[in-house]
Design brief:
The protein is α/β, with parallel strands linked by helices. It is built from 13 helices and seven strands. Strands 3-2-1-4-5 form a five-stranded mixed sheet.
Length: about 350
């Protein structure tokens, strides 16, 4: 008979539950190492049909490692699994593993597409660059705030202008200089490392023909293009281009029960970072891009009717649809193509 396995994964240990014929036949725990887990499963469940675990920090590694071991690994949406697991009277790792094994047996789960290591490498590069930029911004704001206490207001300016202004203002205050200069050096170091990651990201975009294709859209740069491709991976992963907007949480939520039926704000599901990048690109299309296109014209009309924020969200959603269609067809951006939603 076939066996169904549930794994409750943590950083140190993984709880394992095995079911066969509607009953649990074994439950245990082993270190969170895919090879160790594979050995346990092969010895306890030689006819494993499904090995189910939830999305989490180790899910990408576990999926590819268990698949390489020849096991039928399935990663399920943790939000969906939580609804079923919450019905247990007590919350323990062992009971969660039992619940996942039960879901694997009855097939009541939502499988998640696990990205490849190459896509995750690009996403890691983008995230690392984003974090460094955030740290740089926080450091510069901290320097400005500390200097205001002593009546020293740093004029507007970034990069070398900011560095020069700070040094000029603290030159007459030796005590304050001893405090600010280490922060300023840290700020410069972070910006230098962020620039190095910028160079890597641009190099990745230049080597990729799909990235160059997406960058033909005014307002879409290397960061947005590489992030979109890393998230989508293969265009065929989506049946229709319209579903990409919903997958990124750019479509409105709907609540309908009896006589009540209304649409709410956007769902904000999926990749929040990519959603933010598309929103920034939509802002650029509506405010800074000078070249005319059907997408920009459509967005400007929406801005007059609905306001800027709603129009920007609509343009971001439409932009995700256009970008997916471009990857699917291999065509460059067509400014005159219709952009009606």
């Amino acid at each position: 008979m076939e066996e169904f396995i549930g794994l409750d994964v943590s950083l140190k240990d993984t709880s394992i539950s095995i079911r066969r014929g509607g009953k649990r036949i074994w439950r245990g725990k082993c270190p969170s190492d895919p090879k160790c887990i594979a050995e346990v499963i092969r010895s306890r469940a030689p006819n494993a049909k499904r090995v189910v675990f939830e999305t989490g920090p180790l899910s990408v590694w576990f999926f590819h490692a268990l698949t390489a071991e020849g096991l039928p690994a399935i990663c399920v949406d943790a939000r969906h699994a939580a609804k079923a697991l919450d019905m247990a009277p007590n919350k323990t790792d062992a009971r969660d593993a039992d619940g996942l094994a039960h879901l694997a047996e009855v097939g009541f789960y939502k499988e998640v597409r696990v990205k490849s290591f190459d896509s995750m490498l690009v996403r890691t590069l983008v995230n690392a660059r984003t974090h460094l930029i955030q740290i740089s911004t926080k450091l510069s704001n901290q320097i400005r705030g500390l200097m205001k206490t002593f009546g020293l207001v740093v004029p507007k300016g970034a990069g070398g202008v900011f560095d020069t202004n700070v040094r000029e203002l603290i030159s007459a205050n030796e005590g304050l200089a001893l405090i600010i200069l280490p922060l300023l050096e840290a700020w410069r170091g972070v910006r230098k490392r962020a620039a190095e990651l910028d160079g890597q990201l641009i190099a990745v975009a230049r080597r990729s023909s799909p990235c160059r294709q997406l960058m033909s859209i005014p307002g879409v740069g290397a960061v947005t293009a590489t992030s979109f491709i890393a998230a989508i991976e293969e265009p065929d992963n989506f049946r229709t281009s319209r579903s990409v907007g919903a997958w990124l949480g750019l479509t409105t939520r709907r609540f309908q029960s009896g006589e009540v039926d209304y649409d709410g704000h956007i769902s904000k599901r999926g990749d929040s970072h990519l959603r933010g990048l598309l929103y920034e690109a939509a802002n650029a299309i509506l405010t800074r891009v000078s070249s005319e296109s059907s997408l920009r014209t459509w967005g400007l009309k929406l801005r007059e009717q609905l306001g800027f924020k709603r129009a920007a969200v609509a343009v971001a959603r439409k932009l995700s649809v256009i970008m997916h269609t471009m990857l699917k067809t291999g065509e460059l951006f067509n400014p005159s193509a219709g952009a009606a939603a």
